What we know:
Blueprint: E1 3-5, E2 12-17, H1 24-29, H2 45-59, H3 66-91, H4 99-133, H5 140-165, H6 182-190, E3 191-197, E4 207-217, E5 220-225, E6 228-229, E7 235-236, E8 240-244, E9 250-259, E10 265-271, E11 293-296, E12 307-319, E13 322-329, E14 341-343, E15 349-357, E16 362-367, H7 370-379
Helix pairs in contact: 3-4, 3-5, 4-5
Amino acid sequence: MSSYVCPRCGTKGSVLLEANQLCQNCMTKWAWGGPGANQVVTITPDAVAAHQENEAAKTSRAKTSPLMRVLPVVSLVVSGAVIALLIYFFKHSPTGISGQQVINRFANIATGAAILAGLGVLLGMGVFFLAKRNNYDLQVSARVLGVVSIILATGVFGTAVFCWTATERATSLSVPATSDNELLQRLHNATVVIQAHDPDVNRYRSAKREGVIVATEAGRTWILTVPFLDGNGNAMQPPEVWVNVSDGRTLAGRFVWAQSDPLPLAIVEVAADKSPGYVQFHPTAEAFIPGQSVLVIPNPLQGWSIQKGVILSRASRRTKIGWNTVVKSNLPLDSNDIGSAMYDESGRLLGLMIGFKPVTSESQFVIVDSATASVLKSLKK
């Protein structure tokens, strides 16, 4: 029954209470979980508001663990180490080591810098990850330090990746698979890749040309290729040259002859007791006309293969040593294949690739005519 008297304290008040309902004074003093069953408890709006304010104060309290302060500091230290590596990368000028060792050193520096920079980014981001996982509201100083460490680490990471893409590692040719096709095996064996390193041109990478072995005797091997050109289009002889042979060896070489005009050709000499193979000049290469089939071995650094195509057009002019003939082919080659040898269907050497037009997908080859072949043979004497 309803009553003005509180059933707990017996105090009579002005408010009509329902059965088992306590007065407001008893409600404020009520101990939760106390004895008594089937009792009705009324929660006042004031009590709810006070409780919510209490919880909000607990949640908004800024907290930062020691680990969260250490992570951005370590990230900054790592970024500083990366900056030091990058400065060394740009300023270092190695001396007393081979070109292969030089490009490998720069590749190692750039790779290490990229890995460390990536670690710096992760350390900086780890501050906010831990704060979210532990439901911490980071202090302002910790937030600022974390953001600064992430920005710095991201910047040096991008720079390190840029440096890494500008480098390469010295590699050797893989040995071509043994084939029942005698012609294919012979052409593969005679194919080489020539690499040259000139720190004044590019300290971080080597220039590459494909070449073909044309003669070998008395511990020496001669390779015909296309010359490296300077900014003015003149043939140059890089200070350090090495040759990747089809049997997996990497041998030191040197240019014994190079010219850009009238025919862009060069000869590289390698000291080797044995040669994996060589090819012969076509006796009348200048007689080849559009429509005839040809064979080409593309740059083997991209994998050993042979491609068949046809001559699309030719242009000739007379020079002091013979005919300068340039032909265009429909072979799908690119700039990495400069120096690739062109053969007839019997495997006799016709010429070397000197250019590529991406718009028309046409490859240009300079033909080694019979007069030029005679001049080249005399150079080895």
